[in-house]
Design a protein that fits this description.
The chain is built from 14 helices and 13 strands. A seven-stranded parallel β-sheet has the order 3-2-1-4-5-6-11, sandwiched between helices. Strand 1, helix 2 and strand 2 form a beta-alpha-beta unit.
């Protein structure tokens, strides 16, 4: 049955799609000739799928959901969608406008499965779990928070520039998660939420992994690896907890596989939040060493200067829920790192990709 689910043609809408994870997802979806794929984005970046556009398997809708919400809603409301994967919802009004466009007058929605791509930065806007038990479970920090609780978190989380950004970003994404999940409880909206950690791999257009890890190793530069636990937010008595230095990572190529798993196991996926990440969680220092070993290079480490990565400090994610309910098996870390580095070294344009995007 699962094999049939993977091969059955569906109508997919990917909101995003020309960069990084959206691009990787569309590439995989187009491998099934029975899939009909629509890519919706601002139309700013060149479309990398000219052959699929020419064949009619892929359609492209250029609309800015932020600046033209009515145009965005009009496009969503035209057809019935089997699966929508939303990479670019960053605040409640963004997802709210999508929901209203998908709502049918007679009841129900014009989508069978809506997969919302969220982030582990949501935990930057929440109290640390009692005793800061790690790795983090999806329900480790119940919401909603009282106004007093939220103010306390904000005081703790916004005392550094990185903390201010991560708190604001994480809070808005968490509010999106909460809005969509509540809509499932009250109206049956078919939502699945993926919370992703730092993602790396082919077509990474943000470049943190390439700039902070790979390029310095290749160029023989010294890499700062100090991670004081107050660099993002104050931690009280938790500052010596070794587990806090571990972080979760995700290979971009696993995002399409996670989408397939959620679609194939819809009954288990709907109405749920899942961490999608490598089973292995390791400190930033260990990732640097792994990259160096994979490249066959020695690396110079600076233990006195503060590293830019990771961009959150909540600790690693527990991925057992996605493994048990979705039967999702992430690519082993060493295999994924090798594949990412192979892509990066394959072509000079790959090495310049994120720079050109920026």
């Amino acid at each position: 049955n699962e094999e049939a689910l993977f091969t059955k043609g569906r109508r997919y809408l990917v909101i995003g799609g020309t960069q990084f994870m959206g691009r990787l997802l569309i590439t995989e979806l187009l491998k099934n000739p029975d899939n009909k794929v629509v890519m919706m984005n601002r139309g700013v970046s060149p479309c990398p799928f000219s052959a699929a556009l020419a064949s009619g398997q892929l359609s492209h809708i250029a609309v800015n959901r932020l600046n033209n919400p009515l145009g965005f809603q009009n496009e969503l409301s035209k057809v019935e969608w089997d699966v929508i994967v939303d990479f670019v919802g960053f605040a409640v009004p963004h997802v709210q406008s999508a929901v209203e466009a998908l709502r049918k007058e007679e009841g129900g929605f014009r989508v069978s499965h809506y997969i919302f791509i969220s982030t582990d930065s949501v935990y930057q806007s929440l109290p640390l779990p009692r005793g800061h038990k790690l790795p983090l479970l999806e329900d480790c920090c119940p919401t909603p928070l009282s106004e007093q609780q939220q103010q306390q978190v904000e005081r703790e989380a916004t005392q550094t520039e990185t903390g201010k950004y991560q708190y604001a970003y994480g809070k808005e994404k968490r509010e999106c998660d909460d809005y969509l999940l509540n809509l499932h409880r009250t109206e049956g909206f078919p939502i699945t939420v993926f919370r992703l950690p730092d993602v790396y791999g082919p077509y990474d257009n943000l470049g943190g992994f390439w700039e902070q890890v790979v390029a310095p190793v290749l160029q023989g530069h010294t890499i700062p690896v100090d991670l004081p636990t107050t660099r993002i937010r104050l931690r009280g008595n938790n500052h010596d907890q070794p587990e806090l230095h571990r972080m979760s990572w995700l290979y971009g190529g696993d995002v399409p596989r996670a989408v397939h798993s959620a679609v194939a196991h819809f009954d288990a996926a709907v109405g749920e939040v899942f961490h999608i990440a490598h089973s292995e969680a390791l400190p930033f220092l260990s990732m640097v060493k792994l990259v160096a070993v994979t490249l066959g290079r020695t690396v110079s480490l600076d233990f006195d200067s503060e590293s830019e990565m990771p961009y959150q400090d909540s600790g690693p994610l527990d991925v057992s829920k996605s493994e048990k309910l979705l039967y999702f098996r992430p690519t082993p870390l060493t295999t994924a790192v090798a594949a990412a580095l192979e892509w990066y070294l394959q072509d000079e344009q790959h090495r310049l990709y994120h720079t050109q995007f920026q």
